[in-house]
Specification:
The protein is α/β, with parallel strands linked by helices. The chain has helices at about 45-50, 95-100, 155, 165-175, 190-200, 215-225, 235-245, 260-270, 290-295, 310-325, 340-350, and strands at about 5-10, 20-25, 30-40, 60, 65-70, 85, 120, 125, 135-140, 145, 180-185, 205-210, 225-230, 250-255, 270-275, 300-305, 335, 355-360. The longest helix is centred in the C-terminal third of the chain and has 13 residues, at about 310-325. The protein binds adenosine-5-diphosphoribose (APR) and zinc ion (ZN) (2 copies). One zinc ion binds near residues 93, 96, 98, 107 and 109.
Length: about 350
């Protein structure tokens, strides 16, 4: 029987989001119906609303979520009703060129539900990142459900489904930071702070947080930055060099997605060091720098998609580290809100007031 539930949609470009009735089909083969318990508000949700990702309105927003499996379709063996899961947008296919080469974290053919969630008049909804989780119940591919220890609160667990995983993974998977490294993180929002946490977990010796907002620098210290730089007041490249014996950091993680901060990352690293871009730029942005510097400085320039995570490997591990008190993920939850508060949360996010607002159900 189709479920009639409440969900948050972006009906058209730039319009405030609205809570409306969403029809969710019963799970078909390979699908799971999940009762959402918590879903974080991410920049990508706002980008969908603003038309930055596509024109397939209306969008069912939300994609950083945890909940309980309510029903599964035919052939599903990986999860069962009652399982506590984090939703992921990397349900690997096992067959694409990346999966076949043993690099499933690059999977190019990830799975989503086949059936569509709709409005009451039958209008098909486009779920954000193939999830759509600002809704009481959502329909996903079973592979998008990653079972984790249910002892973790859902508002904490859900964050691993997107932004926090992106930042942690930029440090521990993409770079990867190793014991003794010096690391600088440019942009200390939710993603950057997660990168700081990841660098600490990996054993970095020096961790430098760079931001223009003093509130964020304070948080960066709490997450494990050994030094912070207000780049509005101090040249970050010079200061990173000073803090690293005059050389630059072994790894610089850019967690904003802007050309000027990318260049700070590029020049703030040591010779043969690594830059990781995890911030998402917009299509109009351009980079201008001498090509010779790209050769002469050597090293690796990497991008981190979703923290190069493999949900089945990373989510249960990170939840267990959290439960052991080694990964304070609860600090990312700035506020818990209701389904009707997503628009206000976008405003808080744009003002820089929060690391994460999390809708709880
Ligand atoms: N220099 C230094 N810091 C800056 C600058 C700048 N020019 N501009 C913005 N910042 C800081 C902000 O003060 C804020 O602390 O960058 C941080 C960005 O954090 P959030 O807005 O909270 O965004 P977050 O959720 O962390 O995501 C960062 O990663 O996944 C992507 O789409 C996401 O592009 C976004 C980025
Ligand atoms: Zn694949
Ligand atoms: Zn996201």
């Amino acid at each position: 029987m189709t479920s009639r539930v409440r969900g948050v949609i972006a009906r058209s470009k730039g319009e405030p989001v609205e809570v409306t009735t969403v029809l969710v089909p019963d799970p078909g083969p390979g699908e799971a119906l999940v009762a959402v318990q918590a879903c974080g508000v991410c920049h990508t949700d706002l980008h969908y609303r603003e038309g930055g990702i596509g024109d397939d309105y209306p969008y069912l927003l939300g994609h950083e979520a945890a909940g309980v499996v309510e029903a599964v379709g035919d052939g599903v063996t990986s999860v069962a009703p009652g399982d506590f899961v984090i939703l992921n947008w990397r349900a690997v296919c096992g067959e694409c060129r990346a999966c076949r080469r043993g690099r499933p974290w690059y999977c190019f053919a990830t799975h989503n539900a086949q059936q569509k969630m709709t409005l009451e008049d039958g209008t098909v909804l486009s779920p954000a990142l193939g999830i759509g989780a600002f809704v009481d119940k959502t329909l996903v591919a079973a592979g998008q459900c990653t079972k984790v220890d249910p002892a973790v609160p859902p508002e904490v667990a859900g964050l691993l489904g997107c932004g926090v995983m992106a930042g942690l993974g930029a440090a521990i998977n993409t770079a990867p930071v190793t014991r003794g490294d010096s690391v600088a993180v440019i942009g200390c929002g939710g993603v950057g702070d997660a990168a700081i946490l990841g660098a600490r977990l990996a054993g970095a010796r020096t961790i430098i947080g760079v931001d223009i907002d003093p509130r964020k620098l304070e948080l960066a210290k709490q997450f494990g930055a050994t030094h912070v730089i207000n780049s509005r007041e101090t040249d970050p490249v010079e200061r990173i060099q000073e803090l690293t014996g005059g050389n630059g950091a072994d790894v610089v993680i850019e967690a904003i997605g802007r050309p000027e901060t990318y260049l700070q990352a590029f020049y703030g690293r040591d010779l043969a060091g690594t830059v990781v871009l995890v911030g998402v730029p917009t299509p109009d942005m351009r980079l201008e720098a001498p090509l010779l510097d790209f050769f002469g400085r050597g090293g690796a320039l990497k991008s981190s998609w979703y923290g190069d995570c493999l949900p089945s490997r990373d989510f249960p591990l990170l939840v267990d580290l959290h439960l052991q008190g080694r990964l304070p993920l609860e600090r990312f939850v700035s506020e818990t809100i209701g389904l009707g508060d997503v628009e206000a949360a976008f405003a808080a996010m744009s003002r820089g007031d929060v690391l994460r607002s999390v809708v709880v159900f």
